[in-house]
Amino acid sequence: MQLRSGIYFILNKISLKLYIGSAVYFARRRSEHFTRLAKGIHHNEHLQRAYNKYGTSAFDFIIVEFASLDKLIELETYYIAKHR
Questions:
Q1: I need a labelling partner for 42 at 20 to 30 A (CA). Which of 32, 48, 55, 79 fits?
Q2: Residue in 42, 57, 53, 47 with CA at minimum distance from that of residue 9
Q3: Are 72 and 6 within 8 A, CB to CB?
Q4: Do 65 and 7 form a contact (C-beta atoms < 8 A)?
């Protein structure tokens, strides 16, 4: 079985700040983020402000680790703590 779930970063290539998240399906989650950012309705106001300032080309969606569904929250918590 191919894992399609895991941990991702949205990297601001200018400020080097990260948004860290988990996804059941990476492609769907990436699309959700960038659609909301383009519409100006993303739930994370820091990410939204940076997107408004720098534009879509300043951001990369990076798959960090594939993981089973039962490990997503644990791994997301780990990466958030590690990158604080």
A1: 79
A2: 47
A3: yes
A4: yes
DSSP of 26-55: HHHHHHHHHHHHHHT--S-HHHHHHHHHH-
Q: Residue 46's CB: how many other CB atoms inside 10 A?
A: 11
Distance, CA of 67 to CA of 45 (rounded, Å): 27
Q: Average the pLDDT over 79-83 and give the result.
A: 95
Taking the whole predicted model, whether its pTM rises above 0.85 is answered as yes
Residue 60: band (very low, low, confident or very high) from pLDDT cuts 50, 70, 90:
very high
Token reading at 56:
């879509």
Q: Which residues of 13-37 are buried (b: 16+ CB within 10 A; e: fewer)?
A: eeeeebbbbbbeebeebbeebbebb
